[in-house]
Amino acid sequence: MKYNGKDTIVALASPGCNSPRAILRLSGPQAFQCVLERFVSESTRDFLSEENSELTRKLQRPIYKYSCLQGKILVEENTSDLATGTTAPCLLYLMQAPHSYTREDVVEIHTVGSPPLLDMLLEGLISSARKSGRVLRLAEPGEFTKRAFLNGRIDLSQAEAVLRIIRSKNDAELRLAARQLGGETSRILKDAQERLAELLCHIELSLDFSDQDLEPLPLEVLRNRLEVLCKDIACHLRVDNRAYKRGGIRTVLYGPPNVGKSSLFNALLGRPRAITSPHPGTTRDTLEAELTLRGISFYLVDTAGLRQASGIDASAIARSQQAVETSELTLLVMDGSSILNNPLEIFYSITQRKNQTTVLVINKSDLPHRLSPKNLPSPFQNFPMVYTSALTGIGLEKLREEMVERVLNGKVDSTPSLLSSRQKCLLEETLEDLKWGLECMKQPSTLELAALELKEALDTLGKLCGTITSEDILERIFSQFCIGK
Questions:
Q1: Which CATH class is domain 8-154?
Q2: What is the pTM of this model?
Q3: C-beta of residue 136 within 8 angstroms of C-beta of residue 34
Q4: Of 49, 219, 453, 456, which has the maximum CB count within 10 A?
């Protein structure tokens, strides 16, 4: 997707389904002309005052920064007759450059949300523009936001925040993405960039003018400033040291074989996502799915039964243990209808580390109880306990409530990461370069090497802020957007 400021782009900016209202968005130098030639206003007062009407006819654009017009727009592709052609009622929102999201002329057509009508309208706009010698084409994924970035309306971290807003699944994710769009991440990154640039300037001054009468800052002062910068970046990473939550809170179901983990996994989701069988060892790999409870997103992970095994089973067990280690909430599932014969040593190391975030689930409660909580080792008796039956649904609602309660009472951190995975990796890379630079500044003889390391760090920060970008990086970021954004 190469930016061409001469192109005017158009796309459906709302979901493509039947709805009371839908939005078609245009952006570019000929956006007003492409729409206004197919539009008839219901009132002459909608557009401009009488003394400016001649200017309006010449420019085909409003003088005001923002205007809203009510009227009808021509829908048919093969006609340009507003009097006899098929029209649809609409509202036009016109935003004059540079007072728009893309800093270009932008028009939004708000009309009836009928997919066939919208297709006809879109084809009609493009066909009419082509006949008039104008360049109007369909927008590519993320092109509106890319233009906003390239035209200086937002920086790269704010552009990524737009994508996070689109993908947010709960209030916490939405609020965090809004903070990032408001510039919180940008301020952190730009402050680090400015401090590093100033520090590098002083080092270059010491190197290039060491034989002059100038008095550069002492090496110790430069080292102290760099140490403070390293500590500040490390602090940001430490506060944000949570994996970027894909789909929500990582919730792992684990336990001995054949206790009904997969059946419970399906029952929580309300659909048959995992294959179940009465024979032990059916699950050979982790299985994942998203679940939303009371506005909180959980990322459920079903695992193979933990046991002593070899061969391919050992690989499955290793994956299960890794899933538990990286979990944020763990559901330890036991079979309440059988006496516990499996050694529990395999669970001890996990449960000790997951003490605050483990829920003990006694499954198969529709069968006669043979497992008594009193027979479990003391660490397991301290966990909140829920009796369930994946077959009949007993206790499922209570289990869901317990999962939500773990989050609401602060036992599980539900706050998503402020930094995206790309930003976090680049910030870690920056910190590594700064540490090498700090090491090189121990001796005046290696100050030139320190300058090289700091230049690397400054370039990396430039990639974070968007001041240094390649077309490849922009393609990867904006290709994830949906069309119309």
A1: alpha beta
A2: 0.59
A3: yes
A4: 453
